[in-house]
Amino acid sequence: GDPLKGETRPGVMVLLNPQSGSGRALHLFKTQVQPMLAEANIGFSMFVTRKNNHAWDLVKEENMSKWDAVVAMAGDGLLYEVINGLMERPDWKSVIQKPLCILPGGSGNALAASLNYYAREHCHSKEELLLNCTYFLCKGLHAPMDLVSLRMASGKRLFSFLSFGWGFVSDVDIASERYRRLGSARFTVGTVQLLTTLQIYKGRLSYLPRKSPVHVQTPPVSLLEDPLLVPFEQPVPKHWTVVPEEEFVSIIGICHSHLGADFLLAPTAKLYDDAIHLFYVSAGVSRMGMVKFFRAMDKGNLLVLNNPHLHCVAAKAFRLEPLEPKGLMTVDGEVLPCEPVQGQIHRRLARVISRS
């Protein structure tokens, strides 16, 4: 990776959500992060978010040339806001290359867990995860990171750094919001609740397989274009794969190894491997099959499950067309309405502070 520019570092922009996780983000920053930044002689300016999309609006208007890096101290949702705010700026090409840093202060903390996994750092506690990510920031190295461009049938355009979901896993994420004070245990509670009635979601899933993991693609000149996608009113190109099943329990497209601090979903994923790792569970899976699915995610051995209802594939683009408006969709843990959606990977579009 590359170090942060300059001998003297004027500082970093810190965006902090005081409500994230169990509500301890500000306390953790003052007691754990701030002393390490002082030791590393890194100045900072803090912006405490007060409402939904506050960070989105802030980075969209802020003079970003003042900062060496943008730090999100929260769960993954705050970084999602930052990325989308930056991508709406007229100078997006330069500002999206500003190194981004995640300091885990939420309940999911998927990117933080992924970055530690890539660095072969196995964290056994939230404190350890935060300590390592702060150390990455103090060291100042950063590396490229893929982003996914998502287009909704309603015309909405979004950028995702982590995951897209529909069905069971998304429902758990949203339903467990009421247990936010429990931290990561909220997902366990939500899972147990929703397992009592496994819902079926009818839709058509298509994807463009990733032919080779070493494929090199530079970002398009204009991000108004997604060259792999065609308009929704057209069928997907003939060289795409259309999944024969049309009834699902869950569909997830993920760009990183972890879906949460305790959920290692894609152990083969890398920071920039030009792939959306698609996992889908077709209808007919038993409740016990879903329990085994979550247990395997906890241990990181999902791929050894010999379950005919579980499918995994690496894709460069996908399209999902719900055949009924059922359930909610999620992007990076944030809620989307249920409607047709398609997306494609843009390799190395952003930069993230990591070990290398």
From TrEMBL:
One of its GO terms (cellular component) is cytoplasm. Its EC number is 2.7.1.91. It is found in: Endomembrane system. Residues 7-154 form the DAGKc domain. It is an enzyme of class 2 (transferase). This is sphingosine kinase. InterPro entries: ATP-NAD_kinase_N (IPR017438), Diacylglycerol_kinase_cat_dom (IPR001206), Lipid_Phosphate_FormReg (IPR050187), NAD/diacylglycerol_kinase_sf (IPR016064). Keywords: ATP-binding, Kinase, Membrane, Nucleotide-binding, Transferase. Its main location: membrane. SMART domains: DAGKc. GO terms for biological process: cellular response to growth factor stimulus; negative regulation of apoptotic process; sphingosine biosynthetic process. The keyword Transferase applies. One of its GO terms (molecular function) is sphingosine kinase activity. Coiled coil: none annotated. Pfam families: DAGK_cat. PROSITE patterns: DAGK.
